[in-house]
Amino acid sequence: MKPYKIDTTEHIEVDMLGEIRAGFPSPADEEPHEKLDLVRLLVRHPASTFFFRVGGTSMVDADMDEGDIIIVDRAIEPYNGCSAVCYIDGEFTVKRIERHADHTLLIAANPKFKPLRITPDNNFTIWGVVTYVIKRA
User: Fold this and answer.
1) How many angstroms separate the CA atoms of 121 and 102, rounded?
2) pLDDT tens per residue across span 118-133
3) Of 95, 112, 114, 135, which one is the catalytic site residue?
4) Does 83 qualify as catalytic in the annotation?
5) Catalytic: 58?
6) Would you tell me which of 1, 18, 28, 67 could form a disulfide with 33, CB atoms 3.0–4.6 Å apart?
7) Is the pTM here over 0.70, yes or no?
């Protein structure tokens, strides 16, 4: 996993045609209702936000599949149960955080993977909190 910094100097706006119903079809206007800037929508703290591409299957039950892009914000304080990018012993990984009084567990969202208990022997930091997952259709 390698972080990719976003470029906030250039904004790309796309036309948003309005709300689309997920029930019975209804005619939609073809005229745009508003402009949508994905950076403004998905990035709250531009200076501390990075993109990662997911590799592996340890987070599939958290809807993070191989090849998806996750948006990670380093300005958000990690909290118990959040999905976060962690740096452990020289490598990045994404897992759920479970904090206890005397230790931290990194929990995969796939039953095939066992929790990883963080000890003082590990070179460990919670690098940033996952805020969005971008998926391919």
Assistant:
1) 14
2) 988 999 999 999 999 9
3) 95
4) no
5) yes
6) 18
7) yes
